[in-house]
């Protein structure tokens, strides 16, 4: 019997893979005045949590608001503030898709391509926007206004297919309506989501996600739409109710029953 040849695996991304946090020309340190300003914001965020390391997610949004994506400077800043290693911060930053690893335009246009949205036309929307903008997934237009990306389900299946701009909903989209949205964004026109607050820039959105006040009108006043309430309405019309909760099993009264 011959001894099998060993197999060696090269771990980690390839040097030319898109989305590397450490890459040529990326910001590696913050100037003193920027670091001082961010430290004041970080102190405000960290004070909310019993354990400082619990503030990592909002701190990553904070540095993303500064740089437009996660940079080595941002990773080091979060690590210093929370007494973590750069590896620990990077592991979190690369796990969640809302943390961008490449520069992001003023408007992050996300097209849901999960099952229901795809079936209802999400794939066609994404293909048309790539063609219309002349960019691929995760890329930004030359003028820096729009970054296009296919995104995972955002729990809006009742309004499929859905496009999100800086995480605000644009429901029941078509290739034509989505194209108008990106054209208006690039032209500097006011674009209003189907529901939710008026659009702000990607960096402003990141700061809101870090936990700072969202002062946009209608930011917390959105009510569920008709499609969301359709099942409840039908249940009420037909007198349907959820089954009662099961009662707890009686405790055994004897060793034999046990």
Please supply descriptive tags for the structure shown above.
Arc Repressor Mutant, subunit A; 258 residues; alpha+beta; 8 helices; 2 domains; Glutaredoxin; single chain; 4-stranded mixed sheet; 4 strands; 7% strand
Describe the structure.
The chain is α+β, with helices and mostly antiparallel strands. It folds into two domains: 18-103 and 202-216, NADH-quinone oxidoreductase subunit E (Arc Repressor Mutant, subunit A), CATH 1.10.10; 107-200, Glutaredoxin (3-Layer(aba) Sandwich), CATH 3.40.30.10. The chain is 38% helix and 7% strand. It contains eight helices and four strands. It has a four-stranded mixed beta sheet. Helix 1 runs antiparallel to helix 2 (56-67), helix 2 (56-67) runs antiparallel to helix 3 and helix 3 (72-82) packs across helix 4. The chain starts with 31 loop residues before the first helix and ends in a 21-residue tail after the last helix. The model has no long low-confidence stretch (mean pLDDT 88).
- What is the C-alpha radius of gyration, as a whole number of Å? 24 Å
Shape: globular
Query: What is CATH's topology name of the largest domain?
Result: Arc Repressor Mutant, subunit A
Largest sheet: 4 strands, mixed
What count of structural domains? 2
| Helix proportion range | 25-40%
Into which percentage range does the β-strand content fall? 5-15%
What structural category arises from helix and sheet content?
A: alpha+beta
Query: What is the annotated CATH architecture of the largest domain?
Result: Orthogonal Bundle
- H/E element sequence: HHHHEHEEEHHH
Name of the CATH superfamily of the largest domain: NADH-quinone oxidoreductase subunit E
Mean pLDDT: 88
List low-pLDDT spans. Answer: none
By DSSP (H or I, 4+ residues per run), the number of helices equals 8
Quantity of strands, as a count: 4
Just give the CATH class of the largest domain.
Answer: Mainly Alpha
